[in-house]
Each structure stands twice: as C-alpha cells, then as structure tokens.
Amino acid sequence: MHGTVLRTERLTPSMVRVVLGGEGLAGFTMPDGDPTDAYVNLAFPPAGASYGPVFDPKALKDLPREEQPVRRRYTVRDWDADAGELTVDFVVHGDAGVAGPWALGAQPGDVLVLQGPSGGYRPRQDAERYLMVGDESAIPAIAASAAVVPAGRPLTVLLVCDGPEHELPITTEADLDLRWLHRSADPGSELADELRTIDLPAGADVCTFVHGEAEEIRAIRKHLLTEVGMSRADMSCSPYWRRTMDDEAWRAVKKDFVAAMEQDA
Ligand SMILES: Cc1cc2nc3c(=O)[nH]c(=O)nc-3n(C[C@H](O)[C@H](O)[C@H](O)COP(=O)(O)OP(=O)(O)OC[C@H]3O[C@@H](n4cnc5c(N)ncnc54)[C@H](O)[C@@H]3O)c2cc1C
Asked: How confident is the model at residue 91, as a pLDDT?
C-alpha cells in the first residue's frame, strides 16, 4: 500500500503534518474497535534505490541491508474514510534520522509506502478519570484519545516539549487539565516530576496512557504502579523511541528493555 502526499502543514517548529491520499490507499481500513493509537509502518527507500517509489517491502527482504527500505512506525492521527485521506504528524528533530527529515522535505506528489494499520488502545468509556502522558511523538495518539473521552469526565494530560511555540491544542469534551512542560537543559524528568504533584488516590479508577521516550516512560510506569498503586491492566505504556539511539539501534534492544521494564513492577 502507498499514499501520495496531498499537502503538508507545519503545525509547530517541531511538528509537520503530512496528509496522504490517492488510489494507493484503496483498501486502507482501521482495525476493529477503531483504536486511537493505531499506527502504520512506513518504508523509506535509501537514496539511489534500485527499485521505484512504489514497492512491496516484503519482496525486498533478501536485498543487502543497505538497499532495503528503512522502517519507521507512526500513529494514524486521522483516517478520513470518505475522502480517503490519511493524516500523520511527524516530529522533526533536526537533521538526524530518516522519517523526520523526509517529512520536513515532503512535497505534494511524493509517495510513501506503508503497511498496516495496527493498534489496540481506545480509552474505555466507563473510567472515573483519565490520565495521558507523553512527549511530542505521543501527541497524535493522545490527541486522538482525548477526543473520545466522555464529556465532562476528568482528563489530565501531561505533555513535554521544548517551549511554548511547540504546544498544540488538545480538543476534547472531557473536563481537561492540560499541562505543558518545557524541557530543561538536562531533559528527562519533567513528566515524572509533574506527575508527583497530581493527587491520584490509591484505588482510583484511572484509565492511563503513557507513551513516548523510553527512559521517561519507564520511570513514569514504575511510579504509577509502585507508588500510586495503579493496575497494569488499566495502563497502556509504550516506549516509542530512545534518546541517543536511532530506531534501528532502539529496535535491537527494545525487547530486552521492555522485559526489564516489566520487572520493575
Ligand atoms: C507505535 C508508535 C507510534 C509512533 N507514532 C509517532 C508519531 O505519530 N509521530 C512521531 O513523530 N513519532 C512517532 N513515533 C516515534 C518514531 O517512530 C520515532 O521517533 C522514530 O525514531 C523517528 O524516526 P527518525 O527516522 O525521524 O529518527 P531516527 O533515525 O530513529 O533517530 C535519529 C535521532 O533522532 C532521535 N529521535 C528520534 N525520535 C525523536 C523524537 N521524537 N524527538 C527527539 N529526538 C528523536 C534519536 O534518538 C536519534 O538520536 C511512534 C513510535 C511508535 C513505536
């Protein structure tokens, strides 16, 4: 499957929205239950690839590694089935990487090969309150999730970014307590520190979503499980990316990291 770039929009200095469409998305359907953290696997061919812009990633798996497309995973920010438009919001984090720089340079007519979508989280509708925590990479999933929290229900959203110009609106009918935190010169503890200021009574029925940078997610998960007493069943936790590692390096150690994280509590 592939999408053709229809338009792009610079949402903030660190976020580019890419809207894909075209006949290459025929057959795109959201998973059962319409998850709000649905994601697609994107495939970026290396410069000078011997194959064209439209390809089947599975058919290329025997090529030497440097000729294979680079894989990255991104959230479905929106799928408009009537218009056949898929919206993906990319964090742009400097010149490093593949997906961020691609999004920054994307032009109408560019082609992006993708597989999916998959995913399974959608906030349950009967929780007493909701908690969503993450960084810019989780804004798409948190924005989509916040939009389906029942009207009037307490929802606390903690998001960390580089400064006020990087903040985005979160639209919801819930009773929203949105807190933007700005990274310090030694980033990593902002979300966990703020979380400690929030009164979350033990045993409270809180539907929780914590996605973003790996070490930050791990510390928050541990705090919520061991100090607040939340249950694992009510928590969606996902270390999306890891500071200092590109996605190849991160995927190589992710399984062990997640196993160690599971041992925390
Ligand atoms: C299920 C899932 C859904 C995701 N959804 C989204 C999404 O909707 N939008 C989104 O932007 N990301 C999302 N991510 C995270 C994204 O896949 C990673 O950030 C990915 O590493 C970016 O690839 P890249 O090629 O730009 O950079 P890489 O080549 O992977 O990394 C290059 C350098 O940039 C750093 N880096 C990577 N990501 C970030 C970041 N977010 N902020 C700062 N530095 C970074 C790395 O540590 C490395 O030093 C998702 C991840 C998962 C697992």
From this structure: 98
